Amino acid sequence: MATIYDFTVRKSNGERIPLYAFEGKPLVIINTASKCTYTPQFTDLQRLYDQYHASGVEFIGFPCNQFGGQEPGSNEEAAAFCQINYGVKFPIFSKIEVNGHDAHPLFDYLKNAAPFKGFDEANINAKLLKMMITEKNPEWLLGNSIKWNFTKFLIDKQGQVVERFEPTDEMDMLSRSLEAQLKS
Q1: Quick check: 1 pLDDT over 80?
Q2: What GO molecular function annotations does the UniProt record carry, in alphabetical order (predicted)?
Q3: Sheet holding 58-63, edge to edge
Q4: Which sign, positive or negative, has the C-alpha torsion 39, 45, 50, 51?
Q5: Which residues 6+ apart lie within 8 Å of 120 measured at CB?
Q6: 82 among known catalytic residues
Q7: Annotated catalytic residue within 9, 19, 30, 36
């Protein structure tokens, strides 16, 4: 059975890192962007990282420019932005694509392991995001594609995908799921 440990990614400096380096730890994988409506989520993500890192939880971010060109800079600029503007201490890796023909294999795996569950129509932000995608990139509404920046995947200690969180999901949902992972 495949796990995230079967994949290798690149740090912002180009160094190749096998994801088995995170083996035995709960992990949160996020596609990020520095010029996105959801960019302020870095504050909450860093807070959660600070809260859970001592318990072994790791976070890793992957800048992505596929959504409205919201990550136009270099790998180094993306990582520096997170550190300077949001005090991000968790690793920010190299820019990648998460959808389409050039999607990184890790994100193809994540999308298949944790399918898109639909938009929460009761959430105004989810409703607005769906309308924007319908207008600009309707192909992303189909299947399990990543819908926008700041989609998050929770991985258990065995490298299996546990849950997918959309950009409009409340950060408390991720926090509760992290608590459950630490208790298991």
Answers
A1: no
A2: peroxidase activity
A3: 58-63, 27-32, 152-155, 161-165
A4: positive
A5: 126, 166, 168, 169
A6: no
A7: 36
Span 103-113, average pLDDT:
96
Q: Which residues contact 124 (CB under 8 A, 6 or more apart)?
A: none
Q: Taking Cα atoms as reference points, which of 30, 145, 139 lies closest to residue 90?
A: 30
- In the chain, what are the domains? 4-183 (3.40.30.10)
| Cα 39–Cα 174–Cα 82 angle in degrees, nearest 5 | 25
Q: Which backbone phi and psi does 155 adopt, to 5 degrees?
A: -115, 140
The helix/strand/coil state of 37 is coil
> Could you give the C-alpha distances from 81 to 47, 69, 78, 89, 91, in angstroms and in order?
17, 16, 5, 12, 12
**What gap in Å lies between CA 125 and CA 29, rounded to an integer?**
22
- Reduced to 3 DSSP states, what percent helix, strand and coil does the chain have, rounded to the nearest 5? 40, 15, 45
Is residue 116 within 8 Å of residue 142, measured between CB atoms?
no
Give the pLDDT of residue 140. Answer: 84
Amino acid at 69: G
Beta bridge partner(s), residue 163: 154
How confident is the model over 124-165, as pLDDT tens digits? 999 999 998 999 888 888 889 999 999 999 999 999 999 999
How far is Cα 163 from Cα 107, in angstroms, rounded to an integer? 14
